[in-house]
Design brief:
The complex is a heterodimer.
Chain A lengths: L2 H15 L8 H20 L6 H19 L5 H16 L5 H18 L6 H22 L5 H25 L28 H5 L5 E7 L10 E7 L1 E2 L4 E2 L11 E14 L6 E2 L1 E2 L1 E5 L4 E2 L5 E2 L8 E13 L5 H6 L9 H13 L3 H14 L3 E2 L11 H9 L1 E2 L1 H14 L4 E8 L2 E3 L4 E5 L3 E9 L3 E5 L1 H5 L1 H5 L2 H4 L15 H22 L3 H10 L7 H23 L10 H15 L10 H11 L1 H19 L5 H13 L11
Parallel strand pairs in A: 12-13
Antiparallel strand pairs in A: 1-5, 1-16, 2-7, 2-14, 3-4, 5-11, 6-10, 8-11, 9-10, 14-17, 15-16, 17-18
Chain B lengths: L1 H13 L7 E3 L6 E4 L1 H20 L2 H25 L3 E4 L5 E2 L3 E10 L5 E7 L5 E6 L3 E10 L4 E3 L4 E5 L6 E7 L5 E4 L20 E14 L11 H5 L5 E9 L2 E5 L8 H17 L3 E6 L2 E6 L2 H13 L5
Parallel strand pairs in B: 4-12, 15-16
Antiparallel strand pairs in B: 1-3, 2-11, 3-5, 5-8, 6-7, 6-10, 9-12, 10-11, 13-14, 16-17
Helix pairs in contact in B: 2-3, 5-6
Classes of the chains: A alpha+beta, B alpha+beta.
Chain lengths: 651, 316
């Protein structure tokens, strides 16, 4: 094991494991880094590797600590952590080429674990670069004497040749829809909305650039203030947190007076939750899911892969004109002991207002009239009566504060109400012709039940910061707010750049990451393939692969025959033709020496020089082992040989 | 029956016959099979594929396919690393028993592609690793321990490569009619037998300074005053004048007078005699039970004597 190989292996593992540092426990990252540095140091000074008992001790201690940290050694997080720790430890007993092979294989395997966390284009490119480093190291392992440049060339050749073959396999390999066995619970990270709402939960989301979903409208898009993507509906309030509460007996929702239909398709990023998002009230959906009594779309399984679905919604509707007594009671639930001032204020409106609609108007007017402000960084509300604190003291809040306190006020005024969370708005991408809805578009609003009208959406945020609804978050908060990069108002070129990028990312998501058995079927059918079965796919795949490999073989084996053009003979033949022009052609049977003798007799001025050339030529051509210096000398003299003067110019 | 068939198959496939001249490693001569690491890689790829399917990892599929296709292409690269190399057997200088014989093999790479990590392996497990740069001849010495006097034949050598990824083992058999003469290992020390020729009768000439004895081709290191400049002027090339002087005596090295009881011991003894006699500049002859060699001297005579001793009693 020479030093450069060990350094190359260290670099490979470092590159492949570095992206994991983001989610590994800090002590594991630190331990692995320390092990790698230790190995680099030992290699540098030529020190002996640590004793086996020490490594065994570190291994068991590390595994024990991981067990304590994760409560398991299996599953995604713990498994990846263990794998990386063991890889770093393997370095400390790297002695033979066999150990090096194991490390190379481990590096390849760690590449794949990175895709659990990200499959974006930058990740793919980074991993491709990493793979090049790994393969170069691999070649080095099998040929330690080879210089970096030819090594890199061989590795790059292998990679480049494998790319078209990979494309063939990717398209034609018979796809099986996973999973084959139960996925561990932590297989996918969850981000985005959760099924509860407390002060701060949505404003925290608004700091994230992550895409929640993308929407393509079949017709003209609705107005911005109609783009309410409904998510979890929250009924139960405990004084601080809103939760869905216990789901009551499910009764199918009833819609009447449906109008303004709109068709669209949504590509939803996996969020590891069961709900899907739709505009107001959906009545058609291309995937299997249920519509609950409070108009949520819920799947049976949490969403673990990107999902594209078509839907139709109505933006004008009457929903549940008749509501069951049980639901009405749920919508009036209130912790009576808390927030007395808010309850008094609601009672006051109740006595003043003629009907429910008037009370809601009074509440909105209150938000509008009093000095409320919309901010991403509201002061922390710590007391038991935090709605009182918000309504009468701080008066600074984000949408969850407004939605929560509004529903509280409504319930206190005996109007059935609930909190709805979801997303509002989105950014139009002219390049791809679709809307991007990000986590920063997360929103919360209220729905109240009014007799004769059913459930009606009321967004108190619109009363305080109408720009949030009509334009976007960036327009609604002060310029210096800590907004995510993407949500900020940016110069036009930057906007264009990121919209272009998002369009590419969208293609990537749909065609590369989303390529499954259905898409494969659709794609190949469009290419003209009929009756697609896996046998047929396998046959086609083998055939195309064979064709490509054969083509490569043809090109690769070509350079093996190439003969070095014999410069010596070419120079000799040139000499002969020059002499032929001067009237002294060489007879076909004539050997070099005989020819030289004849030339010498005819042209005494050339005799010495040409005899010398002929002698040298014979020696080079028939004299056994060629001598490079003699060859160069002959070539030089032949080039400077002049027929007319017969003078050898000394160089 | 089956073993006979297998033997016939092996004979047909591997053509185990002794060759001479230049051998070109054509496609017919190169065999290829996955190595243990190759099989381990296949297992790893199968595991990865299962993971991809289970977790629906699109980029996982890409990586798995990429690695698999690189493995496939590495098979072609391994084959190419051997294909169309030209090999011929070179000389093998005689050695003494107990030394290491070096069989020279000449490899010519006619293509524009460098060949890396070629390995020559003997059946006894000894290997030599070398590279064959593009459009060049490379000379490789294959060492083999000489353990018995007589002819040493390396038999069949295997030329293989696992470059570039170590996943495939491409090999070819080289069975040249190479042999190396092994002299017996001389005994440590042995007094020369007494000279039986009258004084002065058996003088012989050794390199010295007295008389002009002819010309020989110049070799690097010869003293300048000895260069035959006249011959050079006549375009006969650089030559050196040689001088000689008359020294020494004549003696017979007799198989029967060697003190050892056994044949091998006697031969070892005689080997020492030949070396010492030559070193002392004596004229010496050889008497073996199967014939004798008249007295003479010089490296050629010594080599002939050693050769007779080395091959004594061995089947032709």
């Amino acid at each position: 094991m020479n030093k450069p190989l060990i350094y190359a292996l260290l670099l490979s593992i470092l590159m492949v494991a570095a992206p994991h540092a983001e989610h590994l426990p800090p002590w594991v990252s630190a331990l692995c880094a320390a092990l790698l540095v230790w190995r680099a140091y030992l290699t540098r000074i030529g020190g002996a590797l640590p004793k086996r008992w020490l490594l065994t001790a570190i291994t068991f201690a590390g595994a024990g600590a991981i067990l304590i940290e994760f409560h398991t050694l299996f599953g995604r997080e713990a498994g990846v952590t263990l794998l990386i720790l063991l890889t770093a430890l393997k370095f400390m007993e790297l002695r033979s080429p066999r150990d090096a092979t194991v490390l190379i294989y481990l590096a390849c395997f760690i590449v794949i674990t990175n895709f659990f966390y990200s499959q974006s284009i930058p990740t793919a490119l980074y991993m491709l670069a990493t793979l090049l480093v790994i393969v170069t190291t691999w070649v080095q392992l099998n040929g330690q004497s080879i210089a970096l440049k030819p090594r890199l060339k061989i590795a790059a050749t292998l990679l480049l040749q494998a790319l078209p073959l990979t494309l063939v396999l990717f398209v034609l390999f018979p796809r099986v829809q996973g999973p084959l066995w139960g996925l561990p619970q932590d297989a996918f990270a969850s981000s985005g909305l959760s099924d509860n709402m407390a002060p701060g939960s949505i404003s925290r989301l608004s700091l994230s650039d992550e895409v929640a979903f993308r929407v393509v409208y079949a017709g003209p898009p609705p107005r911005r203030e109609q783009m309410y993507w409904r998510g979890p509906v929250l009924w139960l309030f405990d004084g601080r947190t809103w939760t869905p509460g216990r789901t009551a007996r499910t009764i199918a929702p009833e819609f009447t007076n449906l109008a303004q239909p709109i068709d669209y398709s949504v590509t939803l990023e996996p969020h590891n939750k069961t709900w899907l998002f739709a505009l107001d009230v959906p009545d058609r959906l291309s995937v299997a899911a249920d519509l609950t009594h409070d108009f949520q779309i819920v799947r049976k399984e949490p969403l673990k892969a990107r999902l594209r679905y078509d839907a139709r919604s109505h933006l004008a509707y009457r929903a549940n004109l008749r509501e069951s007594e049980q639901q009405i009671q749920r919508a009036l639930q209130l912790p009576r002991a808390l927030n007395p001032r808010a309850q008094r204020l609601a009672g006051q409106w109740r006595t003043e207002g003629a009907n429910d609609a008037a009370v809601t108007q009074a509440a909105l007017a209150y938000f509008n009239r009093e000095n409320f402000s919309y901010t991403l960084e509201p002061p922390l509300l710590t007391g038991m009566n935090n709605i009182d604190e918000f309504l009468f003291e701080s008066r600074e809040g984000f949408c969850e504060h407004y939605a929560g306190s509004f529903v509280f006020l409504m319930r206190a005024a005996h109007i059935p109400a609930r909190v709805v969370t979801g997303y509002q708005g989105g950014e139009y991408n002219e390049v791809g012709g679709y809307y991007i809805v990000r986590q920063s578009d997360a929103h919360a609003w209220a729905e109240v039940w009014l007799s004769g009208q059913g459930w009606v959406r009321i967004d108190p945020t619109a009363a305080i910061a109408p720009t949030r609804i009509e334009r976007n978050l960036a327009a609604a908060v002060p310029d210096n707010a800590a907004l995510p990069f993407m949500a900020r108002s940016a110069p036009q070129w930057l906007r264009d750049l990121r919209l272009n990028w998002d369009a590419v990312a969208n293609r990537w998501n749909q065609w590369v990451l989303g390529y499954n058995s259905e898409l494969q079927f659709a794609f190949l059918t469009r290419l003209g393939m009929e009756d697609i079965t896996w046998q047929k796919l396998a046959l086609n795949m083998t055939f195309v692969l064979g064709l490509v490999v054969a083509t490569f073989a043809l090109f690769m084996l070509r350079h093996l025959y190439t003969q070095r053009p014999d410069k010596v003979q070419a120079a000799w033949l040139r000499l002969c033709s020059r002499l032929a022009k001067a009237g002294l052609p060489r007879a076909p049977h004539e050997g070099a020496q005989d020819y030289a003798a004849r030339v010498a007799a005819a042209r005494p001025d050339l005799a010495e020089a040409f005899r010398d050339l002929a002698t040298r030529y014979s020696a080079l051509r028939y004299g056994g082992e060629p001598d490079e210096q003699a060859r160069q000398m002959f070539l030089q003299r032949a080039a400077t040989f002049k027929v007319r003067q017969g003078i050898i110019r000394a160089s | 029956m089956l073993t006979a068939l297998r033997l016939r198959f092996n004979i047909w496939l591997f053509r185990p016959k002794v060759e001479s001249g230049t051998v070109v490693l054509t496609q017919r001569r190169i065999f290829i099979l996955p190595t243990r690491q190759g099989l381990a890689m296949a297992l790893l790829l199968a595991l990865m594929l299962l993971g991809d399917i289970n977790y629906n990892l699109s980029l996982g599929y890409v990586l798995t396919f990429l690695l698999a296709m690189m493995a496939v292409m590495s098979m072609l690269h391994a084959f190419r690393n051997l294909a169309h190399l030209e090999v011929r057997a070179g000389r093998a200088d005689a050695v003494f028993c107990g030394e290491t014989a070096r069989f020279m093999l000449h490899f010519r790479n006619p293509g524009t592609l460098a060949r890396y990590q070629l390995v020559l392996r003997h059946e006894n497990g000894g290997t030599v690793t070398f590279d064959a740069p593009a459009q060049q001849d490379s000379e490789v010495a294959f060492p083999l321990a000489a353990t018995r006097r007589g002819w040493l034949q390396p038999g069949r050598l295997t030329l293989y490569t696992e470059f570039p990824l170590g996943l495939f083992h491409a090999w070819s058999y080289l069975h040249f009619d190479m042999r190396c003469l092994v002299y017996p290992q001389p005994v440590e020390e042995a007094a020369l037998p007494p000279s039986d020729a009258p004084d002065g009768a058996g003088k012989r000439s050794v390199a010295g300074d007295d008389d002009f004895a002819g010309l020989r081709v110049y070799t690097a290191g010869d003293a300048l005053p000895r260069i035959a400049w006249k011959a050079y002027a006549r375009e006969r090339g650089l030559q050196v004048k040689q001088f000689a002087m008359q020294v020494g005596e004549e003696l017979w090295l007799d198989f029967d007078s060697a003190p050892e009881p056994d044949t091998e011991g006697k031969l070892a003894h005689m080997t020492r005699w030949v070396l010492d006699a030559e070193a002392q500049g004596l004229r010496y002859g050889l008497k073996l039970p199967d014939g004798e060699l008249p007295p003479g001297d010089g490296p050629a005579h010594r080599d002939e004597c050693l050769r007779r001793i080395a091959l004594f009693g061995l089947p032709k």
